[in-house]
Structure formats: C-alpha cells, structure tokens
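> example.struct
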C-alpha cells in the first residue's frame, strides 16, 4: 500500500519524479529547457522548500512565483492548456507515489495556486 507524504524526503522524491517528467515533456518541457534555461541544481531545492512550506509550514520558501511566471509568459506565451497539463502531470505523479490526506492536500493546493497563477499571469 502507498503511504502518505510524511516529511521533506518524501517531498524531494515527489519533486524529483515530477521534474524528470517535465524535462522530457513535449507540451511544456521547452519552457524549462529553452525559455528559462533552468539550472536544475538551483531550481530543485527551491521547489523542495516551496512544497515543504505549503504542507508543513516551515517558512523556508523565499521566492516570487507569480512574478517568475509573468516574466516567463512575457518571453514565451503561456496558456490555460499549459497550466492544465502541468496540473495533470503533478497530480498523476502524486498518485503514483503517495496516498493519504497530505497527498490529497498537495494536489488541491497545486490546483488552487495554478488557478490564481493563471489569472495573474495571463491578465
Ligand atoms: C504552465 C505551467 C508552468 C510552467 C511552464 C512553469 C515553469 C516554470 C519555470 C520555467 C520556472 C523557473 C523560472 C526561473 O527560475 O527563471 C518556474 C518556477 C517556479 N514555479 Fe512554475 N511553471 C508552471 C506552473 C507552476 C505552478 C502551477 C506552480 C505551483 C503550484 C509553480 C511553481 C513554481 C515555483 C514555486 C517556482 C520558483 C519561483 C521562484 O524561484 O521564485 N509553477 N516555473
């Protein structure tokens, strides 16, 4: 049986598997590889902190995701289908690895943040 997301190590696993998919994704992978030219060694720990703060209120995330995605959109247009696809990949990754209250919560939080981000980015 799958277990729930319990700690930072579980968050790291989730984030690593998610971005392994993103890296080879034909619909949105190019935003990371070609548009933002993401330095993964820097980006992954930022994402561990982001999600750890969301699930466990660690207060260890300092970033400005809304601004980052606005800047990304200015370089190469994002659209609702991109956000939807991001969410499908994220939820599928959570379901592959975990089950439980926190797994449900992180999927819901991702959906809600994506909705706000989409409105702010595309406005
Ligand atoms: C179409 C969907 C999305 C695409 C293509 C995308 C792409 C990116 C890229 C390329 C970066 C790196 C920017 C940089 O460092 O220059 C980034 C950063 C980030 N993304 Fe996304 N993203 C998407 C949706 C989301 C969603 C839905 C969330 C949250 C639920 C999210 C959370 C973050 C966070 C926290 C950062 C780091 C921000 C920071 O360093 O301040 N992204 N994203």
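> example.seq
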């Amino acid at each position: 049986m799958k277990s729930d997301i319990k700690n930072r190590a579980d968050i790291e696993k989730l984030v690593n598997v998610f971005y392994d998919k993103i890296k080879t994704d034909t619909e949105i992978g190019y935003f990371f590889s070609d548009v933002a030219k993401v330095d993964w060694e820097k980006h992954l720990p930022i994402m561990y902190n982001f999600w750890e703060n969301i699930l466990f209120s660690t207060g260890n995330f300092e970033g400005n995701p809304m601004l980052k995605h606005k800047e990304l959109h200015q370089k190469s247009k994002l659209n609702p289908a991109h956000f939807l696809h991001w969410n499908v990949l994220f939820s599928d990754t959570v379901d592959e690895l975990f089950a439980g209250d926190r797994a449900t919560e992180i999927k819901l939080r991702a959906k809600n943040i994506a909705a706000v981000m989409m409105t702010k980015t595309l406005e």
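> remarks
The radius of gyration is 14 Å.
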